[in-house]
Amino acid sequence: MKRSGAKIPRIILAVFLAAVFAAFVPLSGGPALCLAQSAGGSLEHDVKAAYVLNILKFVDWETEKLPAGAPIKIVIAGSDPISDSLEKHADVKIGGRSLSVVKVAGDIVTFPDCQLLYIARSEKTRLADLLKNLKGSHVLTVSDIPDFSRQGGVVGFAIENGRVKIEINVNESKRAGLKFGAKLLEVARLIK
Length: 192
Prior knowledge:
This protein is of the alpha/beta class and 192 residues long.
């Protein structure tokens, strides 16, 4: 029997199932934490990468800022193994666009032209300066730094009752010219 539709790469399916599993199992000492620790923490990073990839499916940039067919460029600021997890998915297409993942380390003031900037926890002390330098840009900022969205980032990951929650700063997303799909807005906590 033939199946219709696009094939889902095994790694994406595995990461998706891990994300679903992680969403239903508390992170505070439960089985998900033990699994992540036993795998060298790679499950945690794969789950974050899955969230980032899924968020990309529900965001629209202004056409002039992201021409048709142009790749989606993801820049990782700081030290975070999520870049390895995202690089595994470089062959994945999001809205018909390929992905490009670039790691940036060191004392960077400006970033290469990108659509998504993932700010690692290692950059927590520089967060205010990084966000200030991005004002007026059309960059989707994402991080798991606590209260990231409340500090001026666009999308933050928060742990609530042992589960990962998405927070979206509505005002910052508007300033960046980003439009989120209704399905994402339904499940996110909106910060104003």
